[in-house]
Amino acid sequence: MPEVKDTLDNNVIKAKKTPQKRVKLDPKGFFTINLENQEMVVEYYNDLNKKVGLDKPDKIFLGKKADALCDTIVKHVPGLLPEHYAYLGRELQKAEYALKENKKYVQGGC
C-alpha cells in the first residue's frame, strides 16, 4: 500500500490545534456544559456580556448523548461559527464519556 504522502502529494494537510490566544469568540454567544442528575446540561447565552450564574440562559439543552445534543443545538441555535460547533462536539463527547464512566467533567477552553 503506498504512503498517503506519495499518493496525495500537496493535498495532505497536517492537523494543527489553534492556540487559545488566536481563538475568535463567536458573536452569537457561548455555552456552558455541566453534568447534573446523570444528564448533560448545556446552557446557551446569546450575548457575550452575560454572566453565568447572574443572568438567565437563553436556552437550556438536556440529554445523555453527545450526538443528540449536537443535533438539537444545531437546530435551535443556527448560525454559529463552524469552529464553535466543532468545539461543542468535542466537549460534549468528553462530557458523555465522563457521564458514562461516573467521572468528573470540567469544560475545557476553546
Keywords:
single chain, 17% strand, globular, alpha+beta, 3 strands, 33% helix, 3-stranded antiparallel β-sheet, 110 residues
Care to describe what's here?
There is one protein chain. This protein has 110 residues and is an alpha+beta fold. The chain is 33% helix and 17% strand. It contains 3 helices and 3 strands. It has helices at residues 4-8, 66-76, 82-101; strands at 30-36, 39-45, 59-63. It has a 3-stranded antiparallel beta sheet, covered by helices on one side. A hairpin with a 2-residue loop joins strand 1 and strand 2 (39-45). Helix 2 (66-76) packs antiparallel against helix 3. The longest helix has 20 residues, at 82-101. It starts with a helix and ends in a 9-residue tail after the last helix.
